C-alpha cells in the first residue's frame, strides 16, 4: 500500500507539471504559433487601443520578448517563488503562488482567488453533502423497491433534475422564496467565520438548487449500480450462507455498488471547486466562477489562466484522492 | 445416530450447541448415513419454477421429482439451459425475483420448504444445506479476504467469537487442501488460483457441516487436472461428513464415478432417472444416448464415435409440443401416429427405480440401444 501511495503521489506531481505546461502553452505558445505578434499579444492584456508605452511595459513584465523556455521558467518561478510586477504607478509584488497579474485591474490574481475561494468552497462542500446523502439514499431505495410507486416517483423527479437547466432551478427557487412569493431569504453570502448560522442560512437556496441536479444524477447512478451489484454471483453466495437480507445489502451490496461513484464524485467535486459558474451568477455570489466569468467577459487573460490552472490543480488532487480511496476499498487495485 | 443429529439441527436453539458435537461426530455420522434403507433426506415432488418475463412465461423447471438419501450422491445432467441451476437454486430458496413462480414440494429432512417461512429457510441455508457455485471467482466477494468470508459463513449460524471462528476457518482451509492455511486466510480471492478458489468455496460451504451439499458445475471453470482433484475432494468430504450431495453438470463423465443416482434433464423436465448403473448401462432415452455419445473417450477415434445431440436446445417459452426433444430426435418417427409431436410422454418405470419419458416401446429402445448405439460408444 505504501508503495502504491508513493507511486500515485509521484504521478500526480508529474501530472501537475504537465498541466501547468499545457496551460502555459495555451496562453503563451499558441497565439505565437498562430502568427500573432508579441505587440498584439501584449495589447490583449490591457484592453483596446492602448498607448505603446503601456504595451512595452506589459511585454517587459511578461517577458514576451524573451525565448519561450525563459518565459516558461518565469511562469513556473512565479508559481513557486512569486514574481514582481512593475506596472503603472506602484510596483506590485505577486507572492507565491503567483497565478498571474491582471494588468486591467492592477491586481494580482492569487489574492482575488484567496478571497473568493471560501465562497465557492462553501457552495461546493455543502451541496456535495446534500447530494451525496439524498442522491445515494434515493438510489438505493429505488433499486431495492424496483418498479414500485416510490421507484417510479423518484426516477421521474430525478429525470427532471437531470434535464432542467441549473439556472432554471436556481431562479425558480429564488422567485418562490426570495422575490415573489415567500420573502424568506434575501440571499447574500456571509462568511462562515463571521457568522456560521447566517452562513448556512444564506447558502440553503444555492445548495439546494446546485444539489438538485447532482442528486438526480447520483440517484440514477446509485440505482443502476445497486441493481447490477445485487445480481452478482457473490450476492447469491452471501444469501446462500444464510445471511439476513439487510446484511447482504449493506455488507456485500453497497460497498461494490458505490465504489464507481467515487470516481465520478471526485471529478464533479473538483470541477465545482474551480467555480460553480451558474449557481454563483444566479445568486450573485462573488466566487471563483464569477471571477472566471469576469475574466472572460473583460478578456482579462491572467484571470482566466489563473482560474483554469486552479481548476486543473483541483482535478489532479481529487483524482489522486480518488485513487487512494479506491485502493483502500478494492484490494485488487492495491495488490496488483 | 443420523436421526439424532437431524433432530438436534431441527431445533433452532439447540442447533448452535449441537454444532460442536456434530463436528466431532462427523466421521461416525458418515458411516451411519451410508446405511442401507436410510429414509429420504431430500424429496422433490413435481417442482415447477416458472419466470414471468416480458417475452412470456419461461418454464425453466416443469415438473421435476427425485429423492436423495443421506450420504448419497445424485447427479443432475443436461445441456446448458435445461434448468439444472434453477432447480438447485429453488431447493436453496434462492429465487429472490418476484417474477419467479414456484410450486410443488421440497422436503428436506421431513420439512417442507416451499411455502415455508422465509426466515426458516434462511436459517437452513448455509447450515443444513449449502451450495458451491460454478465460477468461484465471481462467487467470492472481491473486497473481503477468503478467510473473512468463511468466518462470516460460520458466524451466521454459530454464536462463536472471532477467534474461534477464525480457528474453524483455518481448519477448513487446511481440510480442503490449501497450503499454509493460516497465511492464506488473509488473502483475497484474486490472489488464489482457480482451483484454490473452488477449494475455498467448498470450505465455506462445509464450514457448518451441512447435511445437503449442492454443487452446481463445480469444475466447469477449472482445467482438467484441477477438475479431478476437486471431484476427489468432494467425494472424500462426503464420505467424511456423510452429507447428501447433488452434483450438477452437463458432463456425464463428471458424475460417472461419484453419483449413486442420476437424473437427466431436458427443457426443464426430467426425461430419465435411475441408479447410475441403470442409466449408464441401459440408458432408455435417445437424449441420454446423445449425452453418452458426447462423453470424451481417450481410447476411441473421434470419427467413428456416435454423433452427439444435434441442434440447439429448445426455447423454454414455446416448448415443442409432445415430446420436447422431438425436433432433435433421430427416432421421432419410430412411435406410430405422430404421437411424439402431439402427446407428451410421461415418465414410466422400465425396471425397478429406472424411469424414462419416451413413446418408443421398451423393445424398440432395447433394439436401437444394443444394435445402433452401444457398439459405437
Ligand atoms: N430469473 C430468471 N428469469 C428468467 N429466466 C430465467 C431466470 N433464471 C433462469 N432462467 C432461464 O431458465 C433456463 C434454465 O436456466 P439454468 O440456469 O437452470 O440452466 P442450466 O441447466 O443450469 O444451464 P447451464 O449448464 O448453462 O448452467 C434458462 O433458459 C434461463 O434463461
Ligand atoms: S418420444 Fe419420440 S421424440 Fe421423444 S425421445 Fe422418444 S422417440 Fe424421440
Ligand atoms: Mg447452471
State the assembly state of the protein chains.
heterodimer
End-to-end separation of chain B: 44 Å
Instruction: Give the name of the CATH superfamily of the largest domain in chain A.
Output: MetI-like
Beta percentage of chain A is under 5%
**Strand order across the biggest sheet of chain B?**
6-7-8-3-9-10-12-11
Give the mean pLDDT of chain A.
89
Q: Round the mean pLDDT of chain B to the nearest integer and report it.
A: 86
What is the total tally of β strands of chain B? 12
Q: Largest sheet of chain A, order of strands side by side?
A: 1-2
Q: Percent range for helical residues of chain A?
A: over 70%
Number of strands of chain A: 4
Shape estimate of chain B: globular
The CATH topology label of the largest domain in chain A is: MetI-like fold
| CATH level-1 class of the largest domain in chain A | Mainly Alpha
Number of domains of chain A: 2
| Unreliable residue runs of chain A | none
What is the approximate shape of chain A? globular
Largest sheet of chain A: 2 strands, antiparallel
Compute the gyration radius of chain B: what is it? 21 Å
Helix content of chain B: 25-40%
State the helix count of chain A.
14
Amino acid at each position: 500500500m505504501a508503495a502504491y501511495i508513493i507511486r500515485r503521489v509521484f504521478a500526480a506531481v508529474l501530472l501537475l507539471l504537465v498541466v501547468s505546461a499545457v496551460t502555459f502553452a495555451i496562453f503563451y505558445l499558441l497565439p505565437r504559433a498562430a502568427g500573432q505578434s508579441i505587440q498584439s499579444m501584449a495589447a490583449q492584456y490591457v484592453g483596446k487601443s492602448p498607448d505603446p508605452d503601456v504595451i512595452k511595459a506589459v511585454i517587459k513584465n511578461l517577458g514576451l520578448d524573451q525565448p519561450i523556455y525563459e518565459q516558461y521558467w518565469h511562469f513556473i518561478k512565479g508559481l513557486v517563488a512569486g514574481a514582481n510586477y512593475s506596472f503603472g504607478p506602484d510596483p506590485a509584488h505577486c507572492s507565491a503562488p503567483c497565478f498571474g497579474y491582471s494588468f486591467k485591474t492592477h491586481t494580482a490574481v492569487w489574492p482575488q482567488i484567496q478571497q473568493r475561494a471560501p465562497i465557492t468552497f462553501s457552495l461546493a462542500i455543502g451541496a456535495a453533502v446534500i447530494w451525496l446523502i439524498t442522491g445515494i439514499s434515493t438510489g438505493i431505495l429505488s433499486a431495492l423497491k424496483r418498479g414500485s410507486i416510490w421507484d417510479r416517483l423518484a426516477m421521474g423527479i430525478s429525470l427532471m433534475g437531470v434535464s432542467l437547466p441549473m439556472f432554471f432551478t436556481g431562479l425558480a427557487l429564488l422567485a418562490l422564496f426570495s422575490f415573489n412569493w415567500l420573502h424568506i431569504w434575501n440571499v447574500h453570502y456571509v462568511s462562515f467565520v463571521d457568522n456560521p448560522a447566517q452562513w448556512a442560512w444564506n447558502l440553503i437556496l444555492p445548495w439546494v438548487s446546485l444539489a438538485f441536479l447532482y442528486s438526480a444524477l447520483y440517484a440514477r447512478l446509485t440505482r443502476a449500480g445497486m441493481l447490477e451489484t445485487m445480481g452478482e454471483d457473490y450476492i447469491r453466495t452471501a444469501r446462500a450462507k444464510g445471511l439476513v437480507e439487510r446484511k447482504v445489502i449493506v455488507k456485500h451490496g453497497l460497498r461494490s455498488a458505490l465504489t464507481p461513484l467515487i470516481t465520478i464524485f471526485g471529478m464533479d467535486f473538483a470541477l465545482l471547486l474551480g467555480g460553480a459558474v451558474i449557481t454563483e451568477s444566479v445568486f450573485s455570489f462573488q466566487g471563483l466562477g464569477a471571477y472566471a466569468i469576469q475574466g472572460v467577459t473583460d478578456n482579462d487573460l491572467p484571470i482566466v489562466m489563473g482560474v483554469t490552472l486552479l481548476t486543473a490543480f483541483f482535478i489532479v488532487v481529487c483524482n489522486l484522492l480518488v485513487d487512494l480511496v479506491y485502493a483502500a476499498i478494492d484490494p485488487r487495485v492495491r495488490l496488483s | 445416530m443420523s436421526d439424532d443429529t437431524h433432530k438436534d439441527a431441527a431445533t433452532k436453539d439447540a442447533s448452535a450447541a449441537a454444532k460442536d458435537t456434530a463436528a466431532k461426530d462427523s466421521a461416525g455420522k458418515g458411516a451411519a448415513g451410508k446405511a442401507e434403507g436410510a429414509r429420504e433426506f431430500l424429496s422433490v415432488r413435481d417442482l415447477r419454477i416458472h419466470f414471468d418475463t416480458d417475452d412470456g412465461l419461461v418454464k425453466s423447471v416443469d415438473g421435476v421429482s427425485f429423492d436423495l438419501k443421506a450420504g448419497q450422491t445424485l447427479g443432475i445432467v443436461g445441456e446448458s439451459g435445461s434448468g439444472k441451476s434453477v432447480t438447485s437454486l429453488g431447493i436453496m430458496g434462492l429465487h429472490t425475483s418476484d417474477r419467479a413462480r414456484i410450486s410443488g414440494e421440497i422436503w428436506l429432512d421431513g420439512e417442507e420448504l416451499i411455502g415455508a417461512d422465509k426466515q426458516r429457510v434462511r436459517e437452513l441455508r448455509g447450515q443444513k444445506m449449502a451450495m458451491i457455485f460454478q465460477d468461484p471467482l465471481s462467487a467470492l466477494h472481491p473486497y473481503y479476504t477468503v478467510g473473512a468470508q468463511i468466518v462470516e459463513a460460520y458466524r451466521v449460524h454459530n454464536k462463536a467469537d472471532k477467534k474461534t471462528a477464525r480457528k474453524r476457518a483455518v481448519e477448513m482451509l487446511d481440510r480442503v487442501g490449501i497450503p499454509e492455511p493460516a497465511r492464506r486466510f488473509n488473502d483475497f480471492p484474486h490472489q488464489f488460483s482457480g482451483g484454490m478458489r473452488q477449494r475455498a468455496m467448498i470450505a465455506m460451504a462445509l464450514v457448518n457441516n451441512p447435511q445437503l451439499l449442492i454443487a452446481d458445475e463445480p469444475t466447469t471453470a477449472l482445467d482438467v487436472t484441477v477438475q479431478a482433484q476437486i471431484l476427489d475432494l468432494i467425494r472424500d468430504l462426503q464420505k467424511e461428513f456423510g452429507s447428501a450431495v447433488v452434483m450438477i453438470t452437463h458432463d456425464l463423465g463428471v458424475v460417472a464415478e461419484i453419483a449413486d443416482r442420476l437424473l437427466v434433464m431436458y427443457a426443464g423436465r426430467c426425461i430419465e432417472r435411475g441408479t447410475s448403473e441403470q442409466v449408464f448401462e441401459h440408458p432408455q432415452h435417445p437424449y441420454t444416448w446423445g449425452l453418452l455419445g458426447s462423453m470424451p473417450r481417450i481410447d476411441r477415434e473421434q470419427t467413428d464415435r456416435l454423433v452427439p445431440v444435434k441442434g440447439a436446445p429448445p426455447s423454454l417459452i414455446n416448448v415443442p409440443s409432445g415430446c420436447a426433444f422431438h425436433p432433435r430426435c433421430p427416432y421421432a418417427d419410430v412411435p406410430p401416429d405422430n404421437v411424439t409431436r402431439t402427446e407428451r410422454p410421461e415418465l414410466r418405470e422400465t425396471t425397478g427405480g429406472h424411469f424414462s419419458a419416451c413413446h418408443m416401446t421398451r423393445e424398440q429402445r432395447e433394439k436401437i440401444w444394443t444394435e445402433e448405439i452401444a457398439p459405437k460408444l
